[in-house]
Design brief:
This protein is α/β, with parallel strands linked by helices and about 350 residues long. It has two domains: about 5-15 and about 25-235, Spore Coat Polysaccharide Biosynthesis Protein SpsA, Chain A (Alpha-Beta Complex); about 245-345, no CATH class. The protein has twelve helices and ten strands. The chain has helices at about 40-50, 75-80, 100-110, 125-135, 175-180, 190-200, 210-220, 240-245, 250-260, 265-295, 300-310, 315-345, and strands at about 30-35, 60-65, 90, 115, 120-125, 140-150, 155-160, 170, 190, 225-235. Strand 6 (about 140-150) and strand 7 (about 155-160) form a beta hairpin. Helix 11 (about 300-310) packs antiparallel against helix 12.
């Protein structure tokens, strides 16, 4: 059941309007928009190369970097070195934050399809060719492919789900994307007129602005899926997501978005999907808490546990939290043993 967005988007959550472009037969098919902020030059160079290697020419593809008032000149220097005059550059006059920068990308996009590609992500050969088939063969509002998650050095750590074995439209995608964030930005392109109709990303969201957007789009438009792995999403400790996770800001925002976006469904369906989403993200918070406990320590890890309990208190979640506490005690015990052994072996002790 499709629920009109006007019924449940309050004025405080109303998305920024995206201006409607005039009819122009000369518009390119693609707008590849690359938001940057203090980028690593090697990452940005790899991002640009991955696009330029598939460049069909300026008549078919706009390529532009949107810099969110970086404190250095790395983005501009890298574009001059790598772009060869093919990549446009726009610098904001003040830092606007991630969602606002994404909205600026959409505003400046001239193509029929907008692809927001982050400064540390890449597309693999065939990305634009394969997704073009979905753009031309369907009325989908968004098209996306499978992607690989990579570490800071670019090594693959995992791949996204296979939602169907052949390319085509997805069934009941709105329900699936409501329960779990299943699409990362480098893997998806959205028709510009969809943003014109639904508005831009919500600026108040720092961690889940993309997830909320994919749900908003899915509530009104179909999604087309390409099963080939054609993009890479980089995960590293300096990313915005990693910084938010150490303070559990990611889970707090997930809870807020669940409350917002389940209203994009009928009441009964929304309640069921909200329960599934809360359970999934509570368990995920405990998983991240274990990682943070080992890497950073108990205080940051415990913040994830507290937020997990606010999301869901099912038996499964409680059991996983108990397992987390067992791990914590083992770590404490191991540290005490090492300290005692170190003192026993210290010089001057008999």
């Amino acid at each position: 059941m499709t629920v009109p967005l006007s019924r449940h988007i309050t004025s405080s959550l109303k998305p920024p309007a995206i201006r409607v472009l005039p009819v122009d037969n000369c518009r390119p098919l693609w707008s590849v928009m690359i938001p940057t902020y203090n980028p690593r030059p090697d990452y940005l160079e790899e991002t640009l190369h991955s696009v330029l290697q598939q460049d069909p020419g300026p008549e078919q593809m706009q390529i532009e970097v949107i810099d969110d008032r970086s404190t250095d000149d790395v983005a501009a220097q890298t574009i001059r070195r790598v772009g060869g005059g093919r990549v446009s550059f726009h610098a904001e006059l003040q830092n606007r934050g991630l969602a606002n920068t994404w909205n600026r990308c959409i505003e400046r996009a001239r193509g029929h399809w907008v692809h927001i590609l982050h400064q540390d992500d890449i597309v693999l050969p065939g990305f634009y060719t394969q997704l073009r088939k979905g753009a031309e063969d369907s009325d989908a509002g968004a098209i996306f492919c499978r992607y690989a998650s990579t570490n800071s050095k670019g090594h693959w750590m995992g791949i996204s789900e296979l939602h169907r074995e052949s390319a085509g439209l997805l069934d009941d995608w709105h329900a699936r994307i409501t329960v779990q964030q299943l699409i990362q930005c480098p893997a998806i392109a959205v028709r510009r007129f969809v943003y014109e109709q639904l508005g831009g990303f919500l600026p108040r969201l720092r961690y889940t602005a993309d997830w909320e957007m994919w749900q908003r789009v899915a509530s009104q438009f179909s999604f087309w899926f390409e099963p080939s792995i054609l993009a890479c999403y980089r995960v590293h400790s300096d990313s915005a997501t990693s910084r938010l996770r150490r303070d559990a800001a990611d889970v707090r925002e997930v809870r807020e978005v669940i409350d917002l976006t389940t209203a994009y469904h009928s009441p009964d369906r929304g309640r069921v999907l909200a329960g599934k989403a809360r359970s999934f993200y509570a368990e995920l918070a405990v998983f991240y808490a274990r990682e943070i406990l080992v890497e950073t320590g108990f205080p940051s890890a415990w913040k994830q546990i507290v937020e997990a309990l606010r999301l869901c208190r099912s038996r499964r979640v409680i059991w996983q939290i108990s397992s987390f506490l067992v791990l914590w005690f083992r770590i404490i015990g191991s540290r005490l043993k090492r300290r005692i052994k170190s003192k026993a072996n210290a010089p001057g002790r008999s």
